[in-house]
């Protein structure tokens, strides 16, 4: 059990509270039952006393005499479980069931109404005894009358009732704990929805928690949404500042390029080459920063995410075919009809453009582009018949600024930026060996039935 879980704490707390309540209720029921049984026994003995009391009188010596006696046969049988005794200061009479025993003195609290007590009695039994004083003649001298019954049957009844009550309450406790568990689960279900929505917010910061929650947690939901909005605003301001900085640096770089041309025209070739190299590195860094900003925008964007894969591939291929490297290649395109990818069209074009252009740079004669839907993913595969990439150099190629081919143009930011953009749109990108002999780039986006309809063949 997780001690930090609301679910566990509430269930354990409810189980303990129910157990305590049932224990108190059980003790109360046993006490009430005992009191009820004793009261019924007292009433039964009072009824039997009514047969004795009318015939009680005092003789000349002040000893009690009974002209009538209770008819219950247990009074006439030694140790018969029912006993009576009438006593004065000068003598006593008692039932045959007492034989040679007597009932103890009731004490000084006995009055002219029946009182109940428990005491040790004859023959090793505990007794339930009722007693009172009566004054049968004008002398007003009192006679102490006591009726008693063995406690054994009552104690057995109490024990049986206690056992049956305990079993019933245990069963009731199990039922109530199950009911409390169900109640806790139903009560905490809105928090499960909040958790699921928070997970979506974590994976896509553009998401927000819905407003149809119980009013008890509505302030929490509003606070989380406000925090997400504030975070999005801060990120947007930071991205804009980075983009503004990158754009503002383009003008000084252009001025430096003009100065480099002037220096080259004046014959300072080495200085111009060094300046051109520095400008190219700075421009590449700016392009990378702008690409990162675009990746962040793709991650945070609330715009509809549904791109036509076939249209994007055809548009990019038509452009690359007009380049010097692309005009010499054969493009094999196989895209399922009506296939949609769960990202914006501009982001898909950015990704495919960089990858197909990279494939065109290294391919010998052929580039293959495959796109299809296989639950639970939309997949794109781009392969070429170039030299490929050794498995140990994949991680090296993804380092910003690293280049595996130093002879061609570029500054080594392409693949790493594409990886960022694919990750920002919720996809994964892997590298492998193509069937054509070159590099295979595989991109997969998780299927979302609301954003990516299943393609029709």
Element layout with pairings:
Blueprint: H1 6-52, E1 56-58, E2 64-66, E3 82-87, E4 92-94, E5 115-120, E6 126-134, E7 143-150, H2 152-203, H3 218-265, H4 269-300, E8 307-308, H5 309-320, E9 330-335, E10 340-341, H6 345-362, E11 366-374, E12 377-384, H7 394-397, H8 414-424, E13 428-433, E14 439-446
Parallel strand pairs: 9-11
Antiparallel strand pairs: 1-2, 3-4, 3-7, 5-6, 6-7, 8-10, 11-12, 12-14, 13-14
Give your account of this protein's structure.
The chain has 3 domains: 12-157; 221-300; 307-446, Histidine kinase-like ATPase, C-terminal domain (Heat Shock Protein 90, 2-Layer Sandwich). The chain has 8 helices and 14 strands. The protein has helices at 6-52, 152-203, 218-265, 269-300, 309-320, 345-362, 394-397, 414-424; strands at residues 56-58, 64-66, 82-87, 92-94, 115-120, 126-134, 143-150, 307-308, 330-335, 340-341, 366-374, 377-384, 428-433, 439-446. The strands form 4 sheets. A 5-stranded antiparallel beta sheet has the order 4-3-7-6-5. A 5-stranded mixed beta sheet has the order 9-11-12-14-13, with helices on one face. Helix 1 (6-52) runs antiparallel to helix 2, helix 4 (269-300) runs parallel beside helix 8 and helix 5 crosses helix 6.
